[in-house]
Prior knowledge:
The structure is a homodimer. By secondary structure, chain A is of the alpha/beta class. Chain A contains 19 helices and 22 strands.
Amino acid sequence: MTVIKWNVRAGTYYDSVVLMQLQRGLLELDGVIDAGVVMATPANKDLLATNNLLPDTVSANPDDLLIVVKADDDSSAENAINQVDELLTRRKSSSVSEDFRPRSLSAAVKQLPEAHWVLISVPGRYAAGVAREALDLGKHVFLYSDNVSLEDEIALKKTAREKGLLVMGPDCGTAIINGVGLGFANRVRRGDIGVVGASGTGTQAVTAQIHNLGTGISHAIGTGGRDLKSDVGAITAHQALDALKRDDETKVIVLISKPPSPDVATSLISAAQNADKPVVVYFIGYPPPARKIGNLHFAISLSEAAETAVNGNWELVIDKKLPITNYYLRGLFSGGTLAYETLLGLQASLTPIYSNAPITNYQLLDDPLHSRAHTIIDLGDEFFMVGRLHPMIDNDLRIRRMKQEAADPEVGMILFDVVLGEGSHLNPTGELVPAIRAIQASRKDIEFAAMVIGTDDDPQNLQSQISALEEAGVKVFRTATETVEYVSLKFGANKQNQFTPVNLEQLKQPLAAINVGLESFYESLISQGAQAVHVEWKPPAGGNEKMAALLARMKSKK
Amino acid sequence: MTVIKWNVRAGTYYDSVVLMQLQRGLLELDGVIDAGVVMATPANKDLLATNNLLPDTVSANPDDLLIVVKADDDSSAENAINQVDELLTRRKSSSVSEDFRPRSLSAAVKQLPEAHWVLISVPGRYAAGVAREALDLGKHVFLYSDNVSLEDEIALKKTAREKGLLVMGPDCGTAIINGVGLGFANRVRRGDIGVVGASGTGTQAVTAQIHNLGTGISHAIGTGGRDLKSDVGAITAHQALDALKRDDETKVIVLISKPPSPDVATSLISAAQNADKPVVVYFIGYPPPARKIGNLHFAISLSEAAETAVNGNWELVIDKKLPITNYYLRGLFSGGTLAYETLLGLQASLTPIYSNAPITNYQLLDDPLHSRAHTIIDLGDEFFMVGRLHPMIDNDLRIRRMKQEAADPEVGMILFDVVLGEGSHLNPTGELVPAIRAIQASRKDIEFAAMVIGTDDDPQNLQSQISALEEAGVKVFRTATETVEYVSLKFGANKQNQFTPVNLEQLKQPLAAINVGLESFYESLISQGAQAVHVEWKPPAGGNEKMAALLARMKSKK
């Protein structure tokens, strides 16, 4: 008959390593079958229950430490619980040279003034405070801690951006700065591939594979998983991308993230288009707009991102710097799928973009009869089709719409498709070209582009249709892919970033860092040959929340 | 001073060609500046208004024909309106051999009994009725008409499936059956690539490019754009895929669609996995699960789909027929991104699949502590992390979860990641392997697979970690991509289809078809050398809805 005994300790802070070691210590005792040592959050209590370690009579609050022992008999259980204090002390005394360690971040900075980096892995509820202190001291922050609020993240990142500092995280698992891994990081050789990673093990998988493929990493800058959500607006990713764009030692950039908010994806892709080096983009779960748009290369897996970065053929990069226009695109399609694929490709870099056949709801054009900003219209949509022939047969609707778009002074390009073949109009350009020429007479500044779908066996004579368009100055493409690349390069790249740049020299200096939280991260820095100081951190008032609140109030009254 | 005059004709049916020709006839008249001839739906009235052709005083219902003329002066406008009847008659008398044409589908079938195909392009509100008639006559339907209700589509397709007949559409633009294009279709040479297309111009773009690249098409079967939505369940796409799988003349299948409903995507991908030939999949806007999973090749653009179908290297296809299991996968990850990328890849073929870090909401696992069906767990999620070390440092949580999963008799595979590097546990397999061996002692039938991320410079010794796993019978992969392919092939392919197969012989016979609706589609069939009969179709009661309803009631009382 097994026996379960437990002990609840209110309002005292122990770090996770201590808790793990206490649990292991208990498990080694005679007669102990299982043990759990957790902060008594609902999730952790559920977890104990799943392991049959939570009797109904246990009562503990989320801030309490809950110690549960399951043993063969009553005395073994009792004995184990009685040894908790001793096990906690044993752990403490095994820690070396503690007395020589600074007990605050500011003291650590005095000890290692050349440290530009602060690693923070204290529990979430204390992490923002430590990060704020680090920023006040002018240090970049690697914020491993999770359970940090979104509000704190935004506030920290805005402060950091003003100062030209990075906040990598919260919940940032991985970074490699100047050859030294922060947090969880594989050992990889130095090289010319830079990484911006809004995904921890994503960065690990990509940097490890780049190493395994024989090349290496300049810097890998983490951002934390929420950075690419609209609320945060990719503050860190933009800073990191900008730094790697300016870094001469970085020849290729890899940009990885879980699915970003669409607006954030667009702003980052536009910023990446402005780089004068190749950027491999992998937004996990985000449909790639193309395989390649100018200097951008889109991957569909972590390993493909790594392979592309290593083996990419960059010869033709950046040969297509088109004049960038501030005007709008209007795409007038007869083919629904062609409209859709074009929108899918362009949404990555043109913003705002609307359509009567949107991919996401916020792209929906209120009134299909009137375009706004960049617009892609499917003129074959059933909205237009009651009692009317399809625009592949009857050009009237499209010609009227072309004239309407041309009357809008903000329009810079009219894009359309010409779909040949059986069933279609026998000479579509015979009607479209005169309409285009009429528009050109008054709007020389509007560029026309066409996507022509057809074969040399089609009844319309493919070559003469293409020639008629080209003679009228229409830029002709044969696939949506080519069209998307051209239009993206024309409209996509945005203005320069408006923020204080991160000081590149600080990335290039031998890494020196201050560690607050998990001691193993400090040890890892030392083992990599970096200079580091570990702060013997304790939460305010030893983790007693009520006392801490009282202290904070007294402090603010001073 | 321009003058606008108009004429409203209630309850009379004219086909779209007549309306277009009337409008063009009016525009040729002296003094006429612009003209509009439309069914007076709200959309069409808006369109007239946009073209300044809709005075406020016009009153017309959606079933009414509205004729508007803008002219230089009153008499020109008056004259034009007065000529409407004559223009309508002129159009009529120009049509040849009308008298010899059948006036009903059943009469047409008697005239061309070898026709297995009926093309329907009558207005949407009549189309379902004609399609039903065609199915009753045992014919495949190409349903070009749009504005057909979803309910009608589902009913028609269910009926057709029972009979082994195809309903391509509604709103199906394109098909190529045995070398003959139906609706809008490019002329392409015959070849060994078959296409299933839930997208009209998508099918055109892909088939045209395949021709332009020098090869050709066996059959291209359209489905209509809604076929891959949950409500319809891809009835036609499944039938078409099944037919092309069985067709010896088809060596490669291309499957294209706008974004399918996730459940439908999974069912189609599983069906495609069952093919013993390569299938190129392009679901526009759907993030590809991988570049390749067994015989499946995922493209990210229409042109890439065409290029892959033509140039694909199929040598290694189908060498990996793994024993398919009916049991479930449990993935226990320490890396959030690795979990996410694995889920992204597996969701395409494993169903149902759940996660505490879902890609779509319906995948959300209610209780992160208990798996269901196929499950991918991110054990590093902050839910688990309060007061606990990350699973890359502390293996306790994962080992407990492995035991828990192994206690579930429905579990067939446990997948996990081992992420090495700085900061991570110094010998994770030292703790994981004994736990695995303990499980294997009682559950020999559970397969273990691991994804190992690391480099040869990592502190853990990559090779010894891999060897320890392999010695314990764990299947080791180095990337999510490889893992996804292996697991997909193991669990993905589903059972055989349970429906009446389409009669392949009917696809292989010289195409003979009956056309109801747009005469140009009939002419196109003839010009391609197909046998065809055009039905001189008129709506019931000449398009007078009230009269038609009365007739229908009388008929039902008979």
